[in-house]
Every structure is written in structure tokens, then in C-alpha cells.
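Team,

Forwarding the record for the chain on the shared tracking sheet. I've put the sequence and predicted structure together so nobody has to dig through attachments.
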Amino acid sequence: LLVVIFSVIFGAAIGEFLRIETKLESLGSYIEHRLAGRSGDTASFTRGFVTASLVFCVGSMAIVGSLESGLTGNHQTLYAKSILDGVTSLIFASTLGIGVLFSGAAVFLYQGAITMTAVVMKNFLVAETISQMTSVGGLLILAIGLNLLGLTNIRVGNLLPGIFLPLLYFTVRSLFT
């Protein structure tokens, strides 16, 4: 539990320093201006891109499925996630617009990076590490849900580094034990 708490705290500090959420919003605005034309509703496009990217990327299935794919070659979790994300994206697109479509690139890069990292780090990724990473991802999903309900305005994008801090912690710990 402490690893999860400290991962979120230090992840937030890193994310705020790097201004990840601001950069995601800027990327969404850039894509809107370059590809989506001049619909006049840039806020909706950006909100759709950022919200969908975060929802699809920080979930436990994204992490576990990508790790499973990289570690064992079993892609079943990613297949199930793709079906769920497809249905969810239809719902999001109906309210948030075409920005949701462009979140697919972010999902591809994110899950691909996790899968490739898993292939390289097979010796360090034990069940405890995966459990802590998915716990942090679950907290981020909760924060996204609270934002979607309008109850909070948590800058979830800035919390993303926290997902990978348990991996760093357990890697460093394994080097000294």
C-alpha cells in the first residue's frame, strides 16, 4: 500500500514538473488545428482526445494486458480490452467528438511501450510489481471517473508517471537484495 501511495505522490510531482497534462492538451489542440479542420469547437476536440487517451491508457487491463503480451505472448487480455475500448469509444465519440478517434495513437504508443518494456525487463517483473502498477492505475481510473462526473478537476495526466514508479522501486530493490 505504501508503494502505491508514494508512487502516486512522486508520480504527481514528476508529472507536474513535466506538465504532462498541459502537453496532452497542447497535442490535442495541435491535432485539432492540423487534421480536424476548423470546427470552432477546439475545447471539445481536446477534451475528447485527452479524456479518451487517459481512460484507455491508465486502466488495469492496459497495464496487465500489455505486460502479459510482452512476458508470455498471450494477447487475450488486450483483445478483450480492445472490444471494451471500442464500445467505450463509441459512447465517448457521441458526446466528446472526433478527438476520441485520435486517442488511438496514444493508446498504441503507451501499450506498445509497456509491452516492449516487459520483453526487456522479464527478470524484474514479478507479480508484486504488476499488482502495485495496476493498483496505481486503478486509482487513476477512479480520478478520471470523478472528473467525468464533474465532482473534481484532478489533472490525471500528471499522475501517469506514478504507474511506472513501482517498477522502478522493485527494480532498484532487487539490485540491492
